[in-house]
Write a structure and sequence with these properties.
Blueprint lengths: L8 E11 L5 H11 L3 E6 L5 E8 H13 L5 E10 L8 E3 L2
Length: 98
């Protein structure tokens, strides 16, 4: 019997702390999310951290979280916090909030 791949959706809130402002971090996040076919959004928080809501196939969300720990070349990530959220079936595409 062949093993069937099962789509397991997951939605996470990720807060990224460090040098993540003014280094193209949010555009980089959008590119990574799009390359993994993930939905969601990101925005800068008043304290300078970056908040991301991301949703998609569980293994791809995991890859995205790993990428968030690294960040783009110009950034310096000190730490990230993750929190599981309820999957939103209406969520589509990934956008950067201004």
């Amino acid at each position: 019997m062949a093993k069937m791949d099962i789509y397991v959706p997951e939605r996470q809130r990720i807060v990224i702390h460090g040098k993540v402002e003014g280094v193209g971090f949010r555009l980089w996040l959008r590119n990574v999310a799009n390359s993994l076919s993930l939905a969601g959004s990101c925005r800068q928080l008043p304290d300078g951290a970056c908040e991301v809501i991301v949703q998609g196939e569980k293994s791809l969300v995991k890859q995205f979280v790993v990428a968030c720990k690294r960040g783009p070349t110009e950034a310096s990530v000190d730490r990230i916090e993750t929190e599981p959220l309820t999957v939103d079936p209406r969520l589509g595409g990934f956008h950067v909030e201004r």
